[in-house]
Amino acid sequence: MGTLTSLDAHTRGTRHTPISPAILYFGTQVSLLSTVDDSGHPNLAPNSSVWWLGQTAMLGVAARSQTGRNLMSSGEAVINLPSVDHVDAVDRLALTTGRDPVPERKAGAGYRHVRDKFAAAGLRPLPAETVAPPRVAEFPVHLEGRVVAIHPMGGAPSAAEASLLAVELGITRVHVVDALRMAGHSDRIDPTRWRPLIMNFQRFFGLGDEAMPSRLASIDEEWYRG
C-alpha cells in the first residue's frame, strides 16, 4: 500500500461534484512544434496536446492556426521537447502567432504576430534529417515526422471545415542528447535523467521524484518495437 498523501486524507469521505471545466489539461508534455509554410518559412509554436502510441505521435492543433495550416499543406513537422530548464524559451512564445493578420479571437486575447519565432524565443534552428522543418538546437529531444492522417474533430465533415484537428504524425527520426541516454543501451532514454516540461491547467510544472518502482518496467522496451 502506498503512503496516504495529504490530498488523500483531505478527500477521503468527501463527495465528488460534477463540474464543467473549459479545458482538460490535467498534465501533458509541452513541446514546440516546428513546421514550414508553402514558401519554406518556419513556424515554431508551443503545443501541449500530444501523445504517443508506438512510433506515432498524435497532435491536437487548431485548424486555422499557422501550425494547422502548415501541417495540412506540407505534411511535416518536428516535435521539439524541452526540459523543464527551457521553460523561459517556451514562455516567450506564449501569446504569439504566425498568422498575419492575427485572427480576431486571438487578438482579443492578447496575441500578436511574430514572423521569426526562433529569434523571439532566443533559440537556434538546426536542420532536420528527414523533413523540411528545422529542429530546436537547444532542446534535448527532437522527433521528426510526417503526417499519416488528419482527423477533423467535433463532427466536422472535413479538415477544411473543422476548428480542431487530430493529426497522426509518423515519427521518422529521433534525436536525443547523449546525457539522456541510458548506459549500456544504444536506443534507450534514462528516465531518471529526463525532466520534461509539463503543462497543468495553463501552468508549467516539472516531474517530482519517482513515486515507486513500476511492474511495467520489467518488460524490455524492445518488446514494443514489434
Layout of helices and strands, plus pairs?
Blueprint: H1 6-11, E1 28-29, E2 31-36, E3 42-47, E4 50-53, E5 56-62, H2 66-74, E6 76-81, H3 87-92, E7 96-97, H4 104-108, E8 112-113, H5 117-121, E9 125-126, E10 135-136, E11 141-152, E12 164-176, E13 198-200, E14 203-205
Short description:
With 226 residues, this protein is of the alpha+beta class.
General description of the model:
It contains 5 helices and 14 strands. With 226 residues, the protein is an alpha+beta fold. It has one domain: Electron Transport, Fmn-binding Protein, Chain A (Pnp Oxidase, Chain A). Strands 3-2-6-11-12-5-4 form a 7-stranded antiparallel beta sheet, with helices on one face. Strand 13 (198-200) and strand 14 (203-205) form a beta hairpin.
